[in-house]
Amino acid sequence: MNGTALARGLLVLAYFGLSHAAGARHDPVLAALALGDIAAIVMLEPLLRGSARAWGIAALVAVALAALARTAHAHLPLLLVPAAIVALVAWTFGRTLRKGHVPLITRMVTALDGVPLRELAPDLRSYTRALTATWAVLLGMLAIVDFVLALCAVPGGLLEGIGITPPVAVPRAAWSWFANGVTYGVIGTLFIGEYYYRVRRFPGRYASFFDFLRKMGRLDPAFWREAWRDAPVHEPNGRG
């Protein structure tokens, strides 16, 4: 693991802690720090390169968050972050299921195996397409539940923040546990469980779970940029 990846991992762990503490304590300073942590994650690479533009933006973000921390509404943007992140990832999976596009997990498997798409076994193509759809649906459902809980959280949920009494009061700590704990527990359970199902259905692909993680870690930024572009492909059967 290189220094940038390590720093990003530490920032992600810090975000989970800050976000949960801010939600449970309804603390505007911790909420502002959590939002700043997100900004640092997004801009980490240009910041580490010493980009003047990135550091200028970081300074402006810091000033804005310092002002936000002095208000009673610092927690409102933070309420939207977990649902927004999960929804974005769900959309990233889902949009690759369009006709003429390569499902995201299919693309990942071709990269891990080092084979062209046309040489991928039909049953593996079918499986990876279904798995991509499973992730899109699961993440979409988690994002919806997270957003509804954020709307109904008390005190200081999204509805309360605009002066509307929520139809069902959800303790803010319950929202925080779901957004910063249960959501990622469900994601981790599916990730690990699917791996063990996959190695039984397609034996011999990985030496171990850690071998699988190591291979995943080899996917370089160029792969993820290409996957994000989701360029359509021409296939004889017209399917992605």
Description of the molecule:
- This protein has 240 residues and is mostly helical.
- It has two domains: 1-71, no CATH class; 73-234, no CATH class.
- It has helices spanning 3-25, 28-42, 44-48, 52-68, 75-95, 104-113, 122-152, 158-161, 172-201, 209-217, 221-229; strands at 153-154, 170-171.
- A two-stranded parallel sheet has the order 1-2.
- The longest helix has 31 residues, at 122-152.
- The model is unreliable at 234-240 (pLDDT under 50).
Give the total of beta strands: 2
The helix-and-strand class reads mainly alpha
Radius of gyration: 20 Å
User: How many domains, in number, for the residues?
Assistant: 2
Largest sheet: 2 strands, parallel
Head-to-tail CA distance between termini? 33 Å
> Helix and strand string, N-terminal first?
HHHHHHHEHEHHH
Helix content: over 70%
Q: Proportion of β residues?
A: under 5%
The helix tally amounts to 11
Strand-helix topology:
Elements: H1 3-25, H2 28-42, H3 44-48, H4 52-68, H5 75-95, H6 104-113, H7 122-152, E1 153-154, H8 158-161, E2 170-171, H9 172-201, H10 209-217, H11 221-229
Parallel strand pairs: 1-2
Helix pairs in contact: 1-2, 1-9, 2-4, 5-7, 6-7, 7-9
